[in-house]
Design a protein that fits this description.
5 helices, VC0802-like, alpha+beta, 2 domains, 143 residues
């Protein structure tokens, strides 16, 4: 199942991330997971939230540019080779990973990892065929 991710463009200067976090907090938007990457003068904040529309409205009202993309969250076995199994399944299908990041989870259980593939539908088909656990948004945000 695909999950909507919000990407926010932030100027790489003190206070910009903090101001956005305060705006989202004031609006009551819970951030389930996020990843921030540096791109020179700008940063890119990728986030998952159970309330996408409220988050998008809050982000826009605070004066930030954002986009949405589809990602998939997978249950990756918490053992040596767990990630390699996932990557082998999508590689076999000719799919590339554009980026990925981790979702906090309790030790000893499956790790939750968020992936963006160059062909999301083909990747989902390959992952299902390899019997790799795909998280539904409802269950992901219950954690």
């Amino acid at each position: 199942m695909k999950i909507t991710q919000i990407s926010v463009f932030l100027e790489n200067r003190p206070g910009r991330l903090s101001a956005l976090a305060h705006s989202l907090a004031t609006a009551g938007v819970n951030l389930s997971t996020l990843m921030l990457s540096d791109n020179g003068e700008f940063g890119l904040l990728r986030l998952l939230t159970p309330d996408v529309e409220k988050a998008k409205t809050t982000i826009a009202a605070a004066g930030y540019a954002s986009t949405t993309t589809e990602v998939v969250a997978l249950e990756v076995p918490d053992r040596p080779g767990g990630l390699a199994t996932v990557l082998a399944a999508v590689e076999k299908a000719g799919v590339s990973v554009e980026y990925m990041y981790a979702f906090a989870e309790r030790p000893g259980t499956a790790a939750i990892m968020v992936f963006r593939f160059d062909d999301m539908d083909k990747a989902l088909h390959a992952l299902r065929a390899a019997d790799i656990g795909i998280c539904q948004a409802v269950k992901l945000f219950e954690r």
